[in-house]
Each structure stands twice: as C-alpha cells, then as structure tokens.
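Deviation from plan, reported transparently: protoporphyrin IX containing FE complex.
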Amino acid sequence: MSVDEFSMSAEKRSHWLLSFWRSTVGKKVVMALTGAIGVGYVVAHMLGNLQVFEGAEKINAYAALLKSNLGLLWTARSILIAAVGLHIVAAYQLARTSQKSRPVGYKRWRSVGSDFASRTMRWTGPLLGLFIVYHLLHLTTGAVHPDFVEADVYQNVISGFRVWYVSVIYIVAMLMLALHLYHGAWSMFESLGVNHPKYNRLIRALATILTAIVVAGFIAIPAAVLLGFIS
Ligand code: HEM
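Because the crystal trials were delayed, the predicted structure below was used instead.
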C-alpha cells in the first residue's frame, strides 16, 4: 500500500468513526461499551474494598500495591476518565435528540414498556457523578474528611463511616447506584443488539444478581462500621 493509499484509508476510517458517533445507534453503542468499563470498575472496587474485613494491614497493603505502579494506575485512571466522559456526553446528546424529536411533550404521559429504574436514569446518573466528586474529596484527597491520614485507607474508611450522616450519604448513593446499574446492565445488551424474548429474562436475572452483589458488598462496609462490627 502506498503512502497516499494508506492516508486515504485512514481518512475513510476517521470519517466512518465520526458518522458512527453522530448516529443514535453509535451513541448507544458508546454508552453500552463505556458503561461496561464502569461495571468492571465497580465490581473490582467493591471486591478490593471488602478487604477492609481482613484488617488494616491487608487493605493498606492492597492500596499501596495499586499505587506502587504509577504507570498502571494512571493508565487505568485515564481509561476510566475517558469512559465516564464519553458516557456523559453520549447520554446528554441522546437526551437532547429525544427531546428535540418531541419538543412539546406528551399531553398525558404514560410509561410504556419502561420501569422505575429506566425512568430514573437521567437523575441517578448526575447524582452518582456528584457522589463520585464527594467520594474523591472524602477518601482519596481527604479534603472533606476531618481525620484523614495519608496512606492509611483502613483508618480513613473506619473514621469516615463513624460519622453517621456520611454513612447515610454513602448508603443512599449505593441505592442510586443499584437503580443505575440494574437498568444499565440489561439495556447494555439491548444497545448492542441482543434483544430477544428468549434471552431477555436471563439478562434481567443476571442484571438483578450483579446489582444485588455489588450494592450489598459496598453497603456492608458503612453498615459494619455503624453496627460496630469493625473498628
Ligand atoms: C462503601 C463504598 C465505598 C468505599 C468504602 C470506597 C472506598 C474507596 C477508597 C478508600 C478510595 C481511595 C483509595 C486510595 O486512595 O488508595 C476510593 C477511591 C475511589 N472510589 Fe471508592 N469506595 C466506595 C464506593 C465507590 C463507588 C460506588 C464508586 C463509583 C461509582 C467509587 C469510585 C471510586 C473512584 C473512581 C476512586 C478513585 C480511584 C483512583 O484513585 O484512581 N467508589 N474508594
């Protein structure tokens, strides 16, 4: 292939990507794929966090291990930031497109074929975004944590959750995560073209199990601190 041919095919590829991104289907696929990255992250984060039940040494060593390879840490962070960014932009643009196609709104709106979780995606998403900002200031930088100790994740989690309203904020945020994750997990398959009555029940069942495990795993931590099981 000559240099000219190569640059022409690269141009064609970038045109294809751009028109894919501009289409509704393309944006839905982007939402599904970036959502899948988010699901992978929350599952891994929940499992990592459960080490708090094995004591300070274990979870602090785990946190130190993650930070010992800065290249790997920042690669993972960059992927996550890019995924969350694309997820938000695609969600916003899809919402605008559907608004534009019905600018007046329904006279008498009834939800047809949608459930509580799907109708709440538009506010569970932004609220989860706000929670993540608070969470980073609380347990990563310590800016809003009154007893933050650098590199002592165990102590930061325990003393953080001893403040009852902080635990309540986390538990409410996890319930929002439950709604978002449940709807996101099964609609992800629909966006990727898997939508058949034969599989839909199985997909919904898997989404329910995944959501229950992730959310119960996260909530167990503030609950255990408040109930005095770990201190
Ligand atoms: C009870 C629930 C949770 C606990 C105890 C927890 C704990 C932590 C801790 C201790 C850190 C700081 C780690 C360190 O600096 O070494 C952290 C960071 C983080 N958490 Fe959570 N977390 C919880 C829920 C969540 C949820 C639900 C999300 C996302 C929806 C989330 C997203 C993040 C992110 C993005 C970071 C920053 C990771 C980085 O430094 O790159 N966390 N979490």
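Residues 109-113 have pLDDT under 50 and may be disordered. We consider this an acceptable substitute for the interim report.
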